[in-house]
Write a structure and sequence with these properties.
By secondary structure, the chain is α/β, with parallel strands linked by helices. The protein is built from ten helices and eight strands. It has three domains: 137 residues, no CATH class; 128 residues, Rossmann fold (3-Layer(aba) Sandwich), CATH 3.40.50.20; 48 residues, no CATH class. It is extended.
């Protein structure tokens, strides 16, 4: 398939190529930052572990781009949104993460001057490459094609929510395939003939996702889900989702009117992992300890100021002062 799942983000293979190019440019930006720092300083800066330092910087900045949704923002907000997200990701998120990493692992430390120059070079290199990439590549070929299996009330609700004529969600609604014997509620222009070979149809039209949205799934009540065909498509790499999951991911909301007990039963959000809980707890304690280490002087000054301006203790609880 043309789209690859990375950290729960679906990226086109061409975007992965762009990410690899950017990764190399990020390492080049560190080298340029070192050279510029040496030109403006009385002493030369020498990186003790250049491979580790360049790699750490590039990994953090690449992850920040992915976390900020830089690549998908092109479809929703255009180049201006991409530039804004990149600036925020590099100057705020990336700088904060690198500061913590440098504090815990000094071997990756670049120095304030080198880091500042490296981020500026990174921003310039990456934006230039992305602008050239978006000028050369047809963005219409990078959008995900989505098909709705169903043409009744549920499908119509999905169509109304995403509004295909003004779609800004980074995907293209290719059409709706009727399922069952119910009335067709969606616009006739969106209705597609049910394919005899779903696998061949998906491959021919480069479909990335099938949203299963019939009004009734049980065969004894008019539902006719092509289970075997959907399983075949899913095994070949096509994403098959239900309307609730689709809404939650694309619209960042849960449609309460569509909630069914099966959604809570099979939702990924309720998966328990002891390793994840332990890791999260350790991360929370580490971040809290770091914040406490950095902020305790200000906390002490605040407590002294409270003590000087009022009587009693500077610490409070819900039941009163301690």
């Amino acid at each position: 398939m043309a789209h690859v799942r990375v950290l729960n983000h679906y990226l086109h293979s061409k975007f992965l190529f762009l990410a690899c190019v950017e990764f190399c440019l990020l390492m080049l930006a560190v080298v340029a930052g070192v050279e510029l720092r040496n030109m403006t300083s009385d002493y030369d800066v020498i990186l003790p572990s250049p491979i580790l330092q360049l790699f750490a910087f590039s990994v953090v900045m690449s992850c920040c781009s992915l976390a900020m949704g830089v690549y998908t923002s092109v479809f929703k907000e255009g180049l201006s949104g991409m530039v804004l997200r990149t600036v925020v990701g590099y100057f705020f998120l990336g700088t904060a993460i690198l500061t913590v990493i440098y504090f815990i692992f000094p071997v990756f430390y670049l120095g304030r001057g080198v880091l500042a120059f490296a981020i500026l070079f990174s921003l310039a290199f990456v934006i230039i490459v992305r602008v050239l990439f978006f000028k050369v590549v047809d963005l219409a070929q990078l959008t995900r094609k989505v098909i709705i299996l169903g043409s009744g009330n549920t499908a119509q609700e999905i169509v109304m929510r995403i509004n295909p004529e003004h779609n800004q969600f980074g995907f293209d609604l290719y059409g709706c395939v009727p399922c069952g014997h119910g009335d067709i509620k969606v616009d006739q222009k969106l209705v597609l003939a049910a394919p005899t070979d779903w696998r061949a149809f998906v491959d021919e039209h480069d479909v990335s996702e099938i949203v299963v949205a019939p009004d009734e799934r049980r065969s004894n009540e008019g539902g006719e889900l092509p289970i075997d065909a959907l399983l075949d498509c899913k095994l070949s790499g096509t994403r098959v989702t239900d309307p609730l999951t689709f809404f939650e991911r694309e619209l960042l909301r849960v449609e309460v009117s569509m909630l069914r007990p099966s959604w809570a039963l099979f939702s990924e959000g309720f998966v328990y992992s002891q390793l994840r809980d332990i890791t999260k707890r350790m991360f929370d304690l580490a971040v809290a300890s770091l914040i406490l280490l950095l902020m305790w002087p200000f906390m002490l000054l605040t407590a002294i100021a409270v003590k000087l301006e009022s009587k009693g203790s500077a610490l409070y609880t819900n039941s009163g002062r301690l």
